[in-house]
Specification:
This is PAS domain-containing protein. By secondary structure, the chain is of the alpha/beta class. It folds into two domains: 117 residues, 3-Layer(aba) Sandwich (Rossmann fold), CATH 3.40.50; 176 residues, Beta-Lactamase. The chain has eleven helices and ten strands. The strands form two sheets. Strands 2-1-3-4-5 form a five-stranded parallel β-sheet, with helices on both faces. A five-stranded antiparallel β-sheet has the order 7-6-10-9-8. The protein is elongated. The C terminus is likely disordered.
């Protein structure tokens, strides 16, 4: 039994729906005769795949177009009783997932295709959810935050970083950070970030960011995937910097840690049901970077607190 897979069968007799459920090994095949009812079913129920028959009285391509207007990603398999090249071309132009002819395909083969597409779709949905969870964790960081991979390609920019760097994520994500800001090459920012990657050691520094004529306080945390860079306008005085670190650490260690734990639980559940889903490694790497950030920030904040306490007597 294929646990949890939900298939919508459109246009065929109830007997075929039951046979399809048996062949696919699924408990939940919803059957509707009227193509106009499809979007209502999709709005009311979670469906993983649609099997729509093109037969007398039902225009499967019209149903497909109606579905794609609202649900562009859900798998749609068109099952043609009397297929033709024209019908196949129309289905492809309307973004059909798969086109099969009854004359060439057994019910068991159709069932296998539906289950396969359902698994793929659910895996994609799970990965999208995990990415949303990871993105939510990132966005809750209240200072400017940028991540780059080991080739210095920008992989993430939060809103605070967009404002300070005077860029948009759409413009810079995927680009080499030193090509976006070539004036920074040779600066303290460039030297320290490269040192962090080379030594796999976190770095903390104040430095001018020449491309924008701004002065930043920067903390950069390396990992196997690249570098997480946190920065803000340079503060006036050590106490201000220390207070900011302690406040940030409080948020990271108590608030974000819960979100990361929830995301890891969701990741584990997804791996159990869809171990081959694309993108799971990227999600795990993002969560690993966040945990490294928490640990490094706690260490750094404690060092700042110790230094400030002992220097003031």
């Amino acid at each position: 039994m294929e646990e949890g897979v939900r298939i919508l069968h459109v246009g065929g007799p109830d007997e075929r729906s039951r046979a399809l459920a048996d062949a696919a090994g699924v408990a939940d095949v919803v059957s509707v005769a009227d193509g106009a009812a499809v979007t209502d079913v999709l709005a009311d129920r979670d469906i993983d795949c649609i099997a729509c028959e093109d037969a007398d009285g039902l225009d499967a391509v019209a149903v497909l177009r109606r579905v794609r207007d609202t649900y562009p990603a859900i798998p749609f398999v068109l099952y043609a009783s009397n297929g033709s090249e024209e019908l196949a071309a129309d289905a492809v132009s309307a973004d059909v997932t798969d086109y099969v002819r009854a004359a060439d395909t057994t019910l068991a083969e159709l069932a296998d295709a539906l289950v396969s597409e359902s698994r793929r779709y659910r895996a994609e949905q799970d990965v999208a959810l995990l990415n949303d969870l990871a993105r939510n964790v990132y966005e809750r960081i209240t200072e400017a935050f940028v991540t780059v991979d080991r080739e210095w390609r920008v992989t993430y920019v939060n809103q605070e970083a967009e404002a300070l760097l005077e860029v948009t994520a759409d413009r810079v994500v995927g680009e080499n950070v030193w090509e976006v800001f070539p004036e920074a090459i040779g600066s303290t920012f460039y030297t320290e970030c490269n040192r962090a990657i080379a030594t796999q050691t976190p770095v903390t520094f104040d430095g001018a960011f020449d491309p924008l004529g701004k002065h930043f306080e920067v903390r950069a945390y390396p990992s196997e995937e690249g570098l997480s860079i946190h920065f803000q306008h340079a503060a006036s005085g050590e106490s201000t910097r220390g207070d900011h670190l302690l406040a940030l650490t409080s948020v990271l260690s108590y608030d974000l840690a819960d979100s990361i734990e929830s995301a890891r639980a969701a990741l584990t559940a997804t791996r159990a049901t869809n171990p081959d889903a694309e993108g799971l490694g990227d999600v795990e790497a993002a969560l690993d970077r966040m945990e490294d950030l928490i640990n490094h920030s706690i260490t750094l904040a404690n060092e700042e607190d110790y230094s400030t306490t002992h220097s003031t007597g």
